[in-house]
From TrEMBL:
<keyword id="KW-0694">RNA-binding</keyword>
<feature type="region of interest" description="Disordered">
    <location>
        <begin position="227"/>
        <end position="257"/>
    </location>
</feature>
<feature type="binding site">
    <location>
        <position position="340"/>
    </location>
    <ligand>
        <name>S-adenosyl-L-methionine</name>
    </ligand>
</feature>
<dbReference type="GO" id="GO:0003723">
    <property type="term" value="F:RNA binding"/>
</dbReference>
<dbReference type="InterPro" id="IPR018314">
    <property type="entry name" value="RsmB/NOL1/NOP2-like_CS"/>
</dbReference>
<dbReference type="InterPro" id="IPR035926">
    <property type="entry name" value="NusB-like_sf"/>
</dbReference>
<dbReference type="InterPro" id="IPR006027">
    <property type="entry name" value="NusB_RsmB_TIM44"/>
</dbReference>
<feature type="domain" description="SAM-dependent MTase RsmB/NOP-type">
    <location>
        <begin position="187"/>
        <end position="477"/>
    </location>
</feature>
<feature type="binding site">
    <location>
        <begin position="289"/>
        <end position="295"/>
    </location>
    <ligand>
        <name>S-adenosyl-L-methionine</name>
    </ligand>
</feature>
<keyword id="KW-0949">S-adenosyl-L-methionine</keyword>
<dbReference type="Pfam" id="PF01029">
    <property type="entry name" value="NusB"/>
</dbReference>
<dbReference type="InterPro" id="IPR001678">
    <property type="entry name" value="MeTrfase_RsmB-F_NOP2_dom"/>
</dbReference>
<protein>
    <submittedName>
        <fullName>16S rRNA (Cytosine967-C5)-methyltransferase</fullName>
    </submittedName>
</protein>
<dbReference type="InterPro" id="IPR029063">
    <property type="entry name" value="SAM-dependent_MTases_sf"/>
</dbReference>
<dbReference type="GO" id="GO:0008173">
    <property type="term" value="F:RNA methyltransferase activity"/>
</dbReference>
<dbReference type="InterPro" id="IPR023267">
    <property type="entry name" value="RCMT"/>
</dbReference>
<dbReference type="GO" id="GO:0001510">
    <property type="term" value="P:RNA methylation"/>
</dbReference>
């Protein structure tokens, strides 16, 4: 496989006419139509594919190869959208902003079938023309046919060679070959270089394009304890387990809420705070930016086991409601608030023993599972996010009690969102110290983690198989 080529999956089950694996036309929307609806909602409404697609698949009652086809077509198209847009612009002879949005999303889906899947070319083109008519762009059918036939005249490798001709920088070439915006490549390269791992950039970008396996967290004291010899256990988290099927909802413990879909890196971020040292009964814990509630559920289970009390705060009322729903089956006693986390240091100074600051960020660490995220943000988003992150961390350091712990966490390895935020906060605080987070994690994980230098723990998809979570534990000095 070409190093920049999206992972291929067979489109033969639905590669000809839009038919189910039984050979009969499906009663509901076809896999291609579902993929179009999700891709178009992402482009038009900033929808989140990982939330919308499973719902659409369930409603259409797609299973087996049809569900797999819709999933690969959706995520693969979103993941490589920037690359496919460049291919489409060349093949169409016009800029993509001059192409009707409906036709453009049909072309993106067709390009992925031609260049990223094993769909027979005639099926990819013919079904894309049919789709254009179905979604309200009948006048564009001939245009779609012509453009995709030109796209199919070259392989992905040939298109990449054509698009990178004249690009002088290595990072620019990697950006095209791995379908990442160049500013993202620059940020990831700088983060790796800070650890002395600059040579791993190609491997990291490739890992971002590999769909992750679904992992679950078994909430302690609620889910069945994991057997020590369970082969489905994850490498690092003592509570992690790999989903036995592609549909976690088939697990009754997931249905009941005592197991949750959660990346192993997110599990370690929460456990770094809850298990950094033994808790004293009666401690107060705070999840400062709790939405949508995944880490809050794990912290709630950990707090209950330790005799501690958790408070969950979320700035956006709608997301606070998501936190309530996430906690209701397992920890209805948790107080959930909707408020600006930046004020917590003024309203409740020194009131909490442990605080998790899972700060809003660019999300560059979760590009495997949120394929559209790389195209949703821009370099201009980093500075205001970093300013917000500094304010949240400063507020948390004011709200934590003397001798208490703060965990600063981002699902981004961008240097301006990670080490720079911590350094800026600590530069003004004589009463706060960065703890050796890798050493603390080494007492928690099942297998040793190969982490970089310094007091922070930076996880990586290509090294650890997790999202690129950044974790820094900070202790406020005791009086």
């Amino acid at each position: 496989m070409n190093p920049g080529e999206p992972r291929r999956s067979s489109g033969r089950a639905s590669g000809g006419a839009s038919r189910g694996s039984s050979g009969r036309a499906p009663a509901g929307p076809s896999p291609r139509r579902i993929a179009f609806d999700v891709v178009h909602a992402v482009a038009r409404d900033d929808a989140y594919a990982n939330l919308l697609l499973p719902t659409r698949i369930r409603r259409a009652r797609l299973t087996g190869s049809d569900a797999g086809f819709a999933t690969e077509l959706t995520y693969g198209t979103l993941r490589s959208r920037g690359l496919y847009d460049a291919v489409i612009a060349r093949a169409a002879g016009r800029a993509i902003d001059r192409i009707d949005p409906l036709a453009l999303d049909v072309l993106r889906l067709g390009a992925h079938q031609l260049l990223g899947m094993e769909t027979p070319p005639h099926a990819a083109v013919d079904e894309s023309v049919r789709l254009a008519r179905q979604v309200g762009a009948p006048r564009a059918a001939g245009f779609v046919n012509a453009v995709l036939r030109r796209v199919g005249e070259r392989s992905l490798d040939e298109w990449q060679t054509l698009l990178t001709a004249g690009v002088s920088s290595v990072r620019g070439i990697l950006a095209i070959r791995h379908a990442h915006p160049e500013w993202v490549v620059d940020a990831l390269a700088d983060a790796l270089a800070a650890e002395g791992r600059g040579a791993e950039l190609d491997a990291l970008l490739a890992a971002d394009n590999d769909p992750p396996r679904v992992t679950l967290v078994a909430l302690p004291g609620l889910a069945e304890p994991l057997a020590a010899d369970d082969p489905s256990r994850t490498r690092y988290s003592p509570l992690g387990v790999r989903s036995r099927s592609g549909d976690p909802a088939a697990d009754p413990e997931v249905t009941s809420g005592v197991r949750r879909v959660q990346d192993e890196g997110s599990q370690l971020a929460a456990l770094a705070l809850s298990r950094a040292r033994p808790a004293t009964p009666g401690e107060r814990w705070l999840d400062l930016c709790a939405g949508p509630g995944g880490k809050a559920a794990l912290l709630a289970a950990e707090a209950r086991a330790a005799g501690a009390q958790l408070v969950a705060n979320e700035a956006v009322p709608q997301r606070a409601e998501l936190v309530r729903r996430a906690l209701a089956p397992v920890a209805p006693e948790v107080e959930v608030r909707a408020g600006d986390g930046r004020t917590i240091g003024d309203t409740e100074p020194g009131a909490f023993d442990r605080i998790l600051v899972d700060a809003p960020c660019t999300g560059l660490g979760a590009l495997r599972r949120r394929p559209e995220a790389r195209w949703r943000k821009s370099a201009d988003d980093v500075a205001p996010l970093a300013a917000l992150q500094r304010e949240l961390l400063t507020a948390a350091l004011d709200a934590v009690a003397p001798g208490g712990l703060v965990a600063y966490v981002t699902c981004s390895p961008h240097p301006e969102e990670t080490r720079a935020v911590v350094d800026a906060a600590l530069a003004t605080r004589a009463d706060a110290t960065a703890l050796d987070t890798p050493a603390i994690l080494s007492r928690i994980v099942r297998e040793p983690l190969d982490l970089g230098p310094g007091t922070a723990a930076q996880l990586w998809p290509h090294r650890h198989g997790t999202d690129a979570m950044f974790i820094q534990l900070i202790e406020r000095a005791a009086h």
